[in-house]
Amino acid sequence: MVRIIRFKRGYLDLIIQGRKSVTIRPADGRRYERNLILTDGKRRINAELIFVREDRLRNALKFYRQEGFNTPHELLKTLKSLYPGIRMSSRVNIIKFRPVNINASE
C-alpha cells in the first residue's frame, strides 16, 4: 500500500496554496492508504485520501483545475513531459486528497 506520494517542489507549493487537490498518475496497480504523506523530499504534508479512480487520460483531463492548471491542454502538456509514453488512451489513476495540515514540515 502506498502511503507517500512524491511531488516536484512547485506542485507541493500548489497544494499548500490550496490550488491542487488531485494528482493524475499512470495506473500501475498500486493501492493507496487512507492516510497519505505528500512530499517534495524536503517538506511533508499529511493528507487524507478521498478517492482513487482509474480511467483513461482523455477522461481524467476534466480534473485540470483540481490539478492546479488553467486549461486541460496545460495539464496534458505537463503529463507528457513527466511521463513521455503517456497517451490519451492510457489508463491513469486520479487520486483525490485533502490536506490535513497545511503547514508543511521539513
Task: Provide structural commentary.
The protein has 106 residues and is an alpha+beta fold. The protein has a single domain, classed as Archaeosine Trna-guanine Transglycosylase, Chain: A, domain 4 (Roll), CATH 2.30.130.30. It has 3 helices and 5 strands; from the N terminus they run E-H-E-E-E-H-H-E. The chain has a 5-stranded mixed sheet with strand order 1-3-4-5-2. The protein is globular. The two termini are 24 Å apart.
List the helices and strands and how they pair.
Blueprint: E1 2-6, H1 9-16, E2 22-26, E3 32-39, E4 44-56, H2 57-60, H3 72-82, E5 91-99
Parallel strand pairs: 1-3
Antiparallel strand pairs: 2-5, 3-4, 4-5
Summarize the model shown.
The protein is α+β, with helices and mostly antiparallel strands. The protein has helices at residues 9-16, 57-60, 72-82, and strands spanning 2-6, 22-26, 32-39, 44-56, 91-99.
Query: CATH topology, anyone?
Result: Archaeosine Trna-guanine Transglycosylase, Chain: A, domain 4
Name of the CATH homologous superfamily: Hypothetical protein
Shape: globular
Based on secondary structure, the structural category is alpha+beta
N- to C-terminal separation?
24 Å
Q: Please count the helical segments.
A: 3
Major sheet description:
5 strands, mixed
Cα-atom radius of gyration: 13 Å
Order of helices and strands: EHEEEHHE
- What percent strand? 35-45%
Major beta sheet, strand line-up: 1-3-4-5-2
CATH class: Mainly Beta
Supply the number of structural domains: 1
Mean pLDDT: 94
Number of strands: 5
**Low confidence ranges:** none
Helix content: 10-25%
CATH architecture: Roll
